[in-house]
Amino acid sequence: MVVTILVSLIYVVISSLCPESGALPQELYSISISPSMSPSSATPMPVTIQENPPLSPAMFVIGDSSVDAGTNNFLGTFARANHLPYGRDFDTHQPTGRFCNGRIPVDYLALRLGIPFVPSYLGLTGAMEDMIHGVNYASAGAGVIFSSGSELGQHISFTQQIQQFADTLQQFIIRMGEAAATSLVSNSVFYISIGINDYIHYYLLNVSNVENLFLPWSFNQFLASSVRQGIKHLYNIYARKVVVSGLAPIGCAPNYLWLYGSENGECVEQINDMVREFNFVMRYMIKKLAEEHSDLNITFCDVFEGSMDILKNHERYGFNVTTEACCGFGKYKGLIICLSPEMACTDASNHIWWDQFHPTDAVNAILADNIWNGLHTNMCYPMNMEDMVIQKAERS
Description:
The chain is α/β, with parallel strands linked by helices.
């Protein structure tokens, strides 16, 4: 009864925040959404004037809420971050659709590459200058499995995001010619962060009796195989530099600490074990892909390792709140999602978790440093992103 009331409350509040939200017809899942449908509150991304040429011409982002830069602002879904306090510590101090108080990892990585923040695909105007430095296709709630996260409403799945990139490539070819377009894509970085919703919104919810049909190991292999097929599709359309992000330790997320009744903030190891196993399978799969394609520079960044380093050494990193989210409600603030500024703490910089599942800007900055060059701890195999985009001969 309590859960029913809470769900109803969430629905009412989100509906008031996002009056246009609501499940869309199935037919709309496969069509492009016109820029004219953009929310009037869409916030322009900061543009950095570069004195030096970028290290990569563009970055293309595929994934879920960990890297969503505003896709879900344009969709009928509960999974939206287009309201404060989301974005309060962002460059514009306004919500952009990022599930964070500030920047997400790909924002920091864009700055490292020397390119502007990468805009959301559904927020593009159609102008070449909007997408010449890359496009972000990531959608909160999306998973490898099409139906993962469908109870939240509309999202753009992993396969659909790859198709959106294929459409972008066609636009590049039409406007700049095939040779220039393929050169741009092959020299750009592809960043993939997907899979966590296949646990949160599918396996752990036992959708379609999946837990009884697949042991975690089999489920992990299925997901990794599906990601592999997606990467091969990207390779066939000229992607040659690919960074794959592993899954974070969601067994330590405030939502599961509350849901599983953690007494003193101990992580839920049975969930973390699944994540560790998935990351292991993915790392092996990526190693094999690299062996199959000598011209494919691909690396796996184990976000679980990097996140656990932060959790274990939180004092060294300046975090003194490790289990409770900055914004939420209930024990560990893991019961209800972040809905209003009044639900948020004053200073998020000393918190590891921003909301039920997502880390703070401060954590994202550390993880991005590790992905770039292993500044705090090595978590990318076989190479860091910097090594991928800068030839060693140029650095010596």
